[in-house]
Design a protein that fits this description.
Oligomer: single chain
Radius of gyration: 13 Å
Number of strands: 11
Length: 123
């Protein structure tokens, strides 16, 4: 069965950085667009960033543009989220997700999800 495992979360002070990783057991990782979403307690899961399956084109939520960078290493079946200049409002559980072939920003479009990794930025 498909499995996505996130890691790299933790507590970091405002202005600091973290790099999240997601290792996917997808048999054909390069055929999936990959996304990162986040969810704070009691709030809806929201789109953060995504990357296409082929040429690595990226798309970001306005709230993270210029601060976060998504990338992937198809040889390692891994997608990354480099998070810089972190703010308290970035505090959430971060999830990676996989979607067959094409990129999307809506959470309902993604079929496979990891268990999440917590990022906490105290205020």
């Amino acid at each position: 069965q498909v499995r996505l495992v996130e890691s790299g979360g933790g507590l970091v002070q405002a202005g600091g950085s973290l790099r999240l990783s997601c290792v996917a057991s997808l048999r054909t990782f390069s055929n999936y667009a990959m996304g990162w979403f986040r969810q704070a307690p009691g709030k809806e899961r929201e789109f953060v960033a995504a990357i296409t399956r082929s040429n690595g084109d990226t798309y970001y939520a306005d709230s993270v543009k210029g601060r976060f960078t998504i990338s992937r290493d198809n040889a390692k079946n891994t997608v990354y989220l480099q998070m810089n200049s972190l703010k308290p409002e970035d505090t959430a559980a971060y999830y990676c997700a996989a979607r067959w072939l094409t990129l999307a920003t809506a959470r309902t479009e993604y079929a496979y999800w990891g268990q999440g990794t917590q990022v906490t930025v105290p205020s």
